[in-house]
TrEMBL record:
Belongs to the CDP-glycerol glycerophosphotransferase family. SUPFAM superfamilies: Nucleotide-diphospho-sugar transferases (SSF53448), UDP-Glycosyltransferase/glycogen phosphorylase (SSF53756). This is CDP-glycerol glycerophosphotransferase family protein. It is found in: Cell membrane. Coiled coil: none annotated. It holds the Pfam family Glyphos_transf. Its main location: membrane. One of its GO terms (biological process) is teichoic acid biosynthetic process. One of its GO terms (molecular function) is CDP-glycerol glycerophosphotransferase activity. GO terms for cellular component: plasma membrane. The lineage of its organism: Bacteria, Bacillati, Actinomycetota, Actinomycetes, Kitasatosporales. Keywords: Cell membrane, Membrane, Teichoic acid biosynthesis, Transferase. It is a peripheral membrane protein. Transmembrane segments: none annotated.
């Protein structure tokens, strides 16, 4: 019998289950077993892909938390059970801490209480306030009546372990989807409790706006929770007083903080008042000050008086706030006035605004969608947002606006469709009958959005509150693969609809023929018979600018005259004294840093060399060799944060030094069987929805309103035919 059964339960909410299981796998413990009560296919597949000794209990999508916990516990053989929700985390070594503390306890102890951390969607892990209660008990095992303040611990099942026989005896009373009810009921049923004053759990709070909305009547559940708990403490003075304190605090805060419809508010107040009177302990002393007044009015059932008291407090707060607000409102800009006037006009159902890469021009997924829109829905007029410096680069006849101009604000205010691969400015208002389509511009290897909070180098200058406001405008989010879908839902938690259609910009990799490949190479000046290697490194947050990590002159010399390097970077050595000048003149190095579209570079290249750039995911559609040059992987992974280990899930050969990179090409390993095998697995995972018809699916669904079942289905990857290689062309 193992000392501990860790029971992971629930759906793979926003992709967090993978991280949790990785932690457990990285720190195995001989005296513990891992059971995953996996709700839904993705949770089951994720669990099955981890350590073979993990016990997986597959459950249907609609399985509730209580049922999932029971299913996992039924398979457990450990002396103690630790229930861990799939959205939450475990600090390294937590199961060992719990198992070692549990081994010290005899069977008179039913519940072991732990400390925890809390991570929210907008903040890194912060310590709980529970430590002082745990420390007060120390190592003793006590009846709850002698340590009633333990009821004040955050009511999570994850911050307590339950003895298995205790769970079995009280499963019916604890089998509820209301976790705070189950957590506190476990304490009230326990014979004796013990504490571990060390952090052994991470509670992850998901953004409410990413979860199904609550209806006002759901607030009654709080009263019902305490109505279920209070009878368990009815004849126990100390627990009853603490539980009553908690009940009154929660009732008052909920009533004060929730903007409930009047009918719901009155009913909530009525029920709360009855509970306050029914369960008030004898000789109970109300708190002093404002809180005491609130308690008295609630017990009295004085709804009108309570509302008047609230109104007076709000008036005082509002007056102070008004002074601050007036200062910010002084000197309102003409732009705002114009925009507000435009917002009063009807939405134009035949107007679409497109933007890409912070107004750089016609590019990426928005460009591919706009092209397909012209074919399938020519009645919708596209207008591009383009910075003043880039207007000269636009294709002839492109209708466009420059940011900040009067027409710019007019089209943003009246367009039915707003399409971008980044975000529109904070000032843009989401009109109810407008549709915002977020196309993104890559597959996430590095941490994005809210996941950057824990990585200061990546998050510098990022306003997370403003980010949340921007993503709340999204109606649709385009995705190239299920990995991206999950990571977008995690990094950008909101109520948009994910469109698992593929990236429209990658359609060209399946629709281009040999003539298109030859034309791309001719435009770049690549002579027939030459091997073109595209080198496209990514930006690093810990560097002020682009620093070439390769000696490109030496690399070109070692690879020989039959190889051409296409170098796409932010900037690199320039001027007449550059060691690359001669290579440029000879045609053995071509600076393509400003060349658009990048998809043409991919079509022209025989192979890609990159580090951590998302171009690898797009290029993999071509089923051509990819070499990862990762000389600073550990630094990048630590500084920026990543979603998976590229060193083990790579798309081909991996080089850690320039010498290794050179040898990979000179030996032919860049296109050998092992590289092809890795690329096949990579394509299957990250080119999941890209089949050449992504733009069509997006236009038909978003702009033409066609139902999901009427859209062209995604072709299986084995049935797709990428564009021919340069050698074939």
């Amino acid at each position: 019998m193992p000392q501990l059964s860790v029971i992971v339960y629930g759906p793979n909410a926003q992709g967090h289950l993978t991280e949790l299981l990785d932690t457990l796998e990285a720190h195995p413990l001989s005296d513990a077993e891992i059971i995953v009560a996996a709700v839904g296919d993705w949770a089951r597949e994720t669990a099955a892909g981890h350590a073979p000794e993990t016990i997986v209990v597959p459950l249907p999508d609609d399985t509730g938390d209580a049922e999932a916990r029971s299913a996992g516990a039924a398979r457990a053989s450990g002396r103690w059970l630790h229930f861990v929700h799939a959205k939450d985390g475990l600090p390294a070594g937590a199961p060992r801490l719990i198992a070692e503390r549990a081994a010290e306890l005899d069977d008179s102890v039913d519940v072991l209480l732990l400390d925890h951390l809390t991570t929210t969607w907008q903040s890194a892990a912060r310590p709980s306030r529970d430590g002082r209660f745990l420390a007060a008990v120390g190592r003793a095992a006590l009846p709850l009546d002698e340590a009633a303040d333990l009821l004040r611990l955050t009511p999570l099942l994850g911050n307590r372990a339950l003895r298995r026989e205790f769970w079995q005896a009280h499963e019916r009373q604890l089998a509820t989807d209301d976790e705070p009810l189950a957590a506190r009921a476990a304490l009230l049923h326990a014979g004796r409790v013990a504490c571990l004053n060390q952090v052994a759990y991470e509670n992850r709070e998901l953004r409410p706006e990413s979860l199904p909305p609550l209806v006002p009547e759901d607030r009654y559940g709080l009263i019902e929770r305490y109505e279920a708990l209070m009878p368990l403490a009815k004849d126990r003075r100390a627990p009853r007083v603490v539980l009553y304190d908690l009940m009154m605090r929660d009732l008052v805060r909920t009533f004060a903080g929730e903007n409930l419809p009047d009918a719901v508010a009155r009913e909530f107040f009525r029920r709360a008042s009855l509970a306050a009177v029914r369960w008030r302990p004898e000789r109970y002393e109300r708190p002093s000050g404002v809180e005491g007044v609130r308690h008295a009015l609630l017990e009295e059932g004085a709804y009108t008086k309570y509302r008047a008291f609230q109104a007076a407090n709000r008036t005082r707060r509002a007056a102070r706030k008004a002074v601050r607000t007036r200062k910010r409102q002084v000197g309102a800009k003409l732009r705002d006035q114009q925009y507000r006037r435009a917002l009063s006009r009807p939405v134009d159902p035949h107007l679409a605004v497109f933007a890409a890469y912070w107004e750089r021009g016609v590019a990426c997924n928005p460009a591919a969608i706009a092209a397909k829109l012209a074919e399938l829905a020519p009645h919708i007029h596209p207008v591009w947002v383009v910075s003043k410096d880039n207007t000269a680069l636009l294709p002839p006849g492109t209708d466009h606006v420059v940011p900040g101009t009067r027409r710019y604000w007019e089209v943003l205010a009246t367009a039915k469709y707003l399409v971008n691969n980044v975000n529109f400015p904070n000032a843009v208002v989401k009109r109810p009958d407008a549709i915002h389509l977020q196309t993104h511009h890559g597959t996430p290897l590095k941490r994005m959005g809210l996941d950057q909070i824990e990585h200061p180098a990546a998050a510098k200058g990022l306003d997370f509150a403003a980010l949340l406001a921007r993503i709340d405008r999204w109606d649709y989010s385009v995705s190239a693969n299920s990995h991206s879908t999950r990571m977008w839902e995690r990094a950008y938690p909101a109520r948009y609809t994910s469109l698992d259609y593929g990236y429209p910009r990658n359609d060209v990799f399946y629709t281009s023929d040999a003539a298109a490949v030859r034309a791309a190479r001719e435009r770049l000046g690549i002579a027939p018979g030459k091997t073109a290697v595209l080198y496209a490194p990514t930006h690093r947050d810990y560097e002020a600018g682009f620093t070439p990590r390769l000696d490109l002159a030496e690399l070109a010399d070692r690879l020989g005259e039959d190889t051409v390097l296409l170098v796409r970077a932010h900037y690199f050595y320039g001027g007449a004294t550059s060691p690359l000048t001669g290579l440029r003149r000879s045609g053995r190095l071509i600076d393509v840093s400003s060349y658009d579209p990048v998809e043409e570079l991919c079509l022209a290249a025989d192979a890609l060399v990159t580090d951590y750039s998302s171009i690898m995911f797009d290029y993999a559609n071509l089923d051509r060799p990819i070499v990862v040059y990762a000389d600073d992987w550990e630094t990048y992974r630590t500084t920026r944060g990543v979603y998976f280990d590229l060193m083990t899930e790579h798309p081909g050969q991996v080089a850690r030094t320039q010498e290794e990179l050179t040898e990979i090409f000179r030996s032919g390993a860049w296109r050998d069987d092992s590289a092809a095998k890795a690329r096949t697995a990579f394509r299957r995972r990250f080119c999941e929805y890209d089949d050449g018809r992504a733009a069509e699916r997006v236009v038909r669904r978003v702009f033409l309103g066609e139902p999901e079942e009427a859209l062209p289905p995604v072709l299986p990857i084995e049935d797709r035919t990428p564009a021919p290689t340069p050698e074939e062309a």
